[in-house]
Amino acid sequence: MATREAGEVRRVEAVPGGPVLIEGPVEAELPDGGGTVRSDRVVVALCTCRRSKRLPWCDTSHRTRRAPGAAPSSASPKCP
To answer: Considering Cα of 40, then 56, then 53, then 80, what sign does the dihedral take?
Structure first.
């Protein structure tokens, strides 16, 4: 597994209506004091909608909800 050098930049992308994508590996601290979880994936998707059953990781649950009156979109954001 490759490690990052001190000061090396990590890419983060906020997907509109979707998750925050972060170059991995990532260690996330759980908000309820439940410790930390780790993902060694190349790109990690953190849930921002709180609908995921795998928090803090995105499980694409945001795709099943639409704003009232919003037309369905064929271009859904991709989540790893």
So the answer is: negative
